[in-house]
């Protein structure tokens, strides 16, 4: 299906003002030589329109685009792209005139499971055949500026922007079954959020959000209790080569 309702192409549009460098760079990557950027579709500005598909790039705050995506997928194919920062560099701008910038590699990195931290805003959308997800694993640089009296935990160093350094790999998830491949293959037949956290190597809070998403996607279901924890099982039987319907 073509991307219906395209009424105009935008140049230097709303959305480009105050746009973060990481977002802008990914728009260029996904637009390529043939895609259009900042296109109005059914009253909404879409990041990229290419080959009959609307592409929305979101670096965070999925809840802010819930209404937009829910309306667009009624009539248009839409791919939501989310960057996963698998390697991050920290750049501290000079604090005073004459100081030098400081740059170091951060020990923190994201995994594909960090998608679920945002996807809790509308996990059921993956059940719509017009909607697909794509995670793009990137190397990024976070620029920090010293601001007196701010961010006491980081001693006044406040993030001001993120920059794209490299695109490493993309992971398309066209449907719920594709997202189910992220579940650890050695999960027991019945499991808790604690089991998932341990086997996936993620914190408990992220495991809870992940399970919430899979429940809304109808990929897992509650089958009982283990103490104060819910017990879950897959809705589809897993085979040696994948998921069986």
The share of residues in helices is: 10-25%
Chain-averaged pLDDT = 89
The counted number of beta strands is 12
Return Rg in Å. 20 Å
DSSP helix count? 6
Report low-confidence residues grouped into runs of 5 or more.
Answer: 8-17, 239-245
Largest sheet: 8 strands, mixed
Order of helices and strands: EHEEEHEEHEEHHHEEEE
Q: Which structural class do you get from the secondary structure elements?
A: alpha+beta
Shape: globular
Strand content: 35-45%
What count of domains describes the coordinates? 2
User: What is the CA–CA distance across the termini?
Assistant: 26 Å
Notes on the protein architecture:
The chain folds into 2 domains: 169 residues, no CATH class; 63 residues, Winged helix-like DNA-binding domain superfamily/Winged helix DNA-binding domain (Arc Repressor Mutant, subunit A, Orthogonal Bundle). The strands form 3 sheets. Strands 1, 2, 3, 4, 5, 6, 7 and 8 form an 8-stranded mixed beta sheet that branches. A two-stranded antiparallel ribbon has the order 9-10. Helix 5 crosses helix 6. It is α+β, with helices and mostly antiparallel strands and 245 residues long. It has 6 helices and 12 strands. The C terminus is likely disordered.
Concise structural overview:
By secondary structure, the chain is an alpha+beta fold. 20% of the residues lie in helices and 37% in strands.
Write the layout of secondary structure elements.
Layout: E1 6-9, H1 21-31, E2 36-41, E3 44-50, E4 53-57, H2 66-72, E5 78-92, E6 102-105, H3 115-119, E7 131-146, E8 157-173, H4 176-180, H5 193-200, H6 204-216, E9 220-226, E10 229-234, E11 238-239, E12 242-243
Parallel strand pairs: 4-5, 5-7
Antiparallel strand pairs: 1-2, 2-3, 3-4, 5-6, 7-8, 9-10, 11-12
